Amino acid sequence: MAALAYARRHRRPLAALAAWSAVEALHTFATGYALARALDAGFLAGAPRTGLAWLAVAALAVVVGAFGTARTYRGIAALVEPLRDTLVRRVVTRALYDGDGGAVSRLTHQVEIARDTFAGLLMVTRSFVFTAAGALAGLFLLAPVLLAVVVPPLLLGLALFVATLRPLARRQEAYLAADEALAKELGLLVAGLRDVAAAGAEQVVREGAGARIEQGRRTADALARWSLARAGALAVAGRLPVVPLLAAAPWLLGHGVSPGALVGALTYLTQSLLPALQGLVHGLGTSGSRFLVVLRRLAAAPPEPGYGRRPVPPSPSAPALELRGVTFGYGAHADPVLREVDLTLPAGGRLVVVGPSGAGKSTLTGLLAGLLQPWSGEVRVAGVPAGSAGAPARRVLIPQEAYVFSGTLGANFGYLREDAVPQAEVTAAVRAIGAQALVRRLGGLDAPVVPGELSAGERQLVALVRAYLSPAPVALLDEATCHLDPAAEERVERAFAARPGGSVVVVAHRAGSARRAEKVLVMDGPGTVSGTHEELLARSALYRDLMGAGEGSHPPGAAGDADGVDAVAGPGLAGDGGHVVAHGSVRQVQAAGDLADGGALGGQ
Ligand SMILES: Nc1ncnc2c1ncn2[C@@H]1O[C@H](COP(=O)(O)OP(=O)(O)OP(=O)(O)O)[C@@H](O)[C@H]1O
Prior knowledge:
With 604 residues, the chain is α/β, with parallel strands linked by helices. Helices cover 59% and strands 10% of the residues. The strands form 3 sheets. Strands 6-9-10-3-11-12 form a 6-stranded mixed β-sheet, with helices on both faces. The structure holds adenosine-5'-triphosphate (ATP). Adenosine-5'-triphosphate binds next to helix 11.
């Protein structure tokens, strides 16, 4: 269908190609016929001049045919180049919109394969059709009975070859898939080489890439074996048809076929039909299967939602982060860590997350950061789905273990920026985070950093300045200040809260973070409950425990927890614009110890 549509769109170049192919086919027709006439009417009849005249006709046909052949290349180019342009446009569009990692392989390798093989296919198919037409017409004119001897073995050869097409195409597809996977893996590796070296992950990376290379080798071997089988089929199809003609020669001569016609038939067979058949078999076998496979990979990969359209841009006024009915767990058979959680963090909002160890706080930040994908429900970033273009650059996650690499302090600070960060901006960030003493001690921004020679707290300061300078408006601090003293921690949290245009989620390490917060999310297993510090003291026994208030200070009128199940923040809280709102199912409340400000939360 697609081929027909393509042919319809390119009717004119196709017609021109057919016309020049017909001129080319004149040569085929004339070669056998003129040879037969040269023998029968010329040399065998004692009229060598007539024979020579017919040979001259054959020679003239060669010249005319060569002219036709030369012209067919223009027609081929007029059909092939538009296909290449279409494929390149498609691949580049997908790479730009979807961050398609296999695009390099597609663009540099597969599009060229598609173009070359399409040209090859057009050439051999066209040549076979017109050569066969010329030769069969010639045979018919010489003696129709010749067709009965020549055509059946030709068809048998074709059938043999067709049988190898499908298995070969499958091997070709596997080979290209392996090539793409390798290109993707190497693309990722090159981008992350510094991180690989910093994390000492060379061995892991070697094993992963080694497995891909091995897979590529295996698929190439399988392809080579089937190519060998096809070469066998080609040998049979390309030689066999001569035998019946030679074997039937006495019978044919006895039934009115002249010697010249016999020689003409042999000429048609050996000079035209068999080479054209070999060309077709070889061309379809290599170019045909490669073309179909490559085209399927280039054209049939499912377009992503919104493919070909501009992605919806993130909206700065939409909530910075939203969870809608998010359920998530680790492993197919594990209990969910979060169940049906709704959460809204308005643009510029601040959320502090508290909960006992294992309650799912890091899991929540992983979901918000896009490191984890929910089982169900949706994560939206600035109004767009978390997986779509534009969303990744809007969040920066600072985990407990800060990542610092060997290089200058300035390079570490500016790591998440694509531009050169102005000095004044760096100085302001260093001051906001409270890292001036560290910068001084190391000798300024150009001083080299040896990660192992920094304390855990100093490494956190480096990571925090880097996050502060990042273009992402949303900062996710997952106990990112746990190695700092309470005063330094407070300074960092205030800095992120005041970051222009910024929103922040803090997984609290100490109770003080929650006391200072506008809104707090209390997590306990799959359950969440949110509110202000005062609301939660009244509503949540777990929160009172975490804050060190204890059961004795249970304020009058607080939401009941007699059955061990805390209140779920319901519609009353949802939608109170400007505040963080959350609700979800809540599990058994667990006491987390009596913690005062400065003490650790969550079992640290
Ligand atoms: N990679 C993982 N594979 C399987 N289970 C995990 C994984 N990470 C966390 N969990 C489980 O998910 C639950 C929530 O863990 P999570 O780290 O989110 O809790 P947390 O509140 O951040 O804990 P902590 O305060 O100790 O850091 C725990 O039961 C934990 O064992």
